[in-house]
Amino acid sequence: MSARADVTPVDVVHLAKEIYGLTVTDLKELPGFEDRNFLVSCEPSPPIHEDKQTVPDAQQKTSGQYVIKISGSRDKQDDSKLEKQRLIMNFLSCEHFICPKYVKTKSGSWFEWYDRGNGPMRVRMLTYVPGDTLMDHWEVLSARDTLTTLGEFVSKLHLVLERLTQSGDVQVDVDTLNPWRMDNFLCLKDFLDEIQDVKKRQTLSDILKRFQEEVLCKSDSLSSGIIHGDIHDMNIIIHVENGKIRPIHQPAKETDSDRVKNTFGIIDFGDVTFSKYVFEVSMVIRDAIVDVKSMDPIEIAGHFLGGYLKHRLLNCAELDVLFVCILVALCQYGVLGEHEYKLQPDNEYTKLGAEDAWKHLEVLQKMDKLHVIKTWSTLLSSTYDLVL
C-alpha cells in the first residue's frame, strides 16, 4: 500500500493547465483509499483526446467535467498495469457498460509523471461519470430490488470479463502482494500482532484457518479470470429520482441486457487483477452487508444471488465456499481498514465500515455453513424460482 500523493488544490489547477491545457473553474476532492481524486470543471472545453477505440460517447457527455487522479507510487512498472486497466475500460465501454475513459495529455500520452520536488507523482485524467454513489442512497431505495439488480449487473460484468480473459487480448498479472486480494488472505497473519483486542485477534486466527482448510483446498474448482477487484457501493454510480433508481443512460431502443447495464456506472479500475470470480462475489456481498442496515446479512446475500444467478451460475464448489469467503472479506475489511487508518489518520475513507465488519463477524462466524446455504436455497426458490 503506497503513500498518498502530497498535493494541494493549487497544484491540481496547475497540473490541469500544464499537462492537459485546461483551465479549472471549479474543483472538489473526492474520497480515495490511496489515489488523490479531484473532480474538476474546466473551460474552455476543447475537443479532448479521449480514447477513440470506444463506442461514441452519447452515454457519457462530460460537459467539461473530469476526474484527475494523482498517485504517489514510485514504481514505474505500474505503467504497464495502467495500460491494461485502460484497455479493459475500453473493452467494457464497447460492451455498453458505463465507465470512465482515459483522456490524453497535450503530449499525446495517457498519463504523465510530475515531480515538484517531494517525489514523483503519476497524473491521469478520466472522463467523469455523472451521478451519485450507491452508498449515499441505500436508506431511500428498496434494498431488495437494488441488491437483485446489482447482482445482475455484476454477473453480466463477470460474463464479459470472462470472455475477455479467454480471448487473451489483455493479460492481467496475478497480484501476489496486495492483502486486499482474497487469494492473498493468509498474509493477514502478519497483522495478528497489531490487533490489541483479544476477541478480534482470535476471530482473525479462526477465519485464517477456515480459509486454508475450506477454501484453498477447492481452489482448482473455482473459476478464475479478470475481475474489477473493487466493486463496492462507492464505486457504483446511480441516478435516483423520487426514491427509485433511474437509468443513467436511456437509449432509443433498450434490451433487457442494456437495462441492467444502463442502471449502474462503474468506476475505479485501479485494483483490476486475475482472481476467482466467487471471491469478488463475496466482496460485493461484504460491502452490502456493512452498508445496508435494513436487512439481515444472510438475506442480503440471498437477494444479491437472486440477481447474479439469473445470468451466471456458480458451481458446487463455489457455492460451498461462498459463506466462508464472505467471512474472509469482512475480516479483510476490519483488519486492513484499521491498519490503513493508522497509516493515514487524516483519511476517514480508510476505516469506513471496519467496526461494522467486526460486529457482523462476531455473529456470522457462529452460524453453521450448511444452514446458511439452506436458507439461501429456500429464499432463491420461493422468491426467484431458482434452484441452488
TrEMBL record:
<dbReference type="InterPro" id="IPR002575">
    <property type="entry name" value="Aminoglycoside_PTrfase"/>
</dbReference>
<keyword id="KW-0808">Transferase</keyword>
<keyword id="KW-0963">Cytoplasm</keyword>
<feature type="domain" description="Aminoglycoside phosphotransferase">
    <location>
        <begin position="62"/>
        <end position="245"/>
    </location>
</feature>
<dbReference type="Pfam" id="PF01636">
    <property type="entry name" value="APH"/>
</dbReference>
<dbReference type="GO" id="GO:0047992">
    <property type="term" value="F:hydroxylysine kinase activity"/>
</dbReference>
<dbReference type="GO" id="GO:0005737">
    <property type="term" value="C:cytoplasm"/>
</dbReference>
<keyword id="KW-0418">Kinase</keyword>
<comment type="similarity">
    <text>Belongs to the aminoglycoside phosphotransferase family.</text>
</comment>
<protein>
    <recommendedName>
        <fullName>Hydroxylysine kinase</fullName>
        <ecNumber>2.7.1.81</ecNumber>
    </recommendedName>
</protein>
<dbReference type="InterPro" id="IPR050249">
    <property type="entry name" value="Pseudomonas-type_ThrB"/>
</dbReference>
<dbReference type="InterPro" id="IPR011009">
    <property type="entry name" value="Kinase-like_dom_sf"/>
</dbReference>
<comment type="function">
    <text>Catalyzes the GTP-dependent phosphorylation of 5-hydroxy-L-lysine.</text>
</comment>
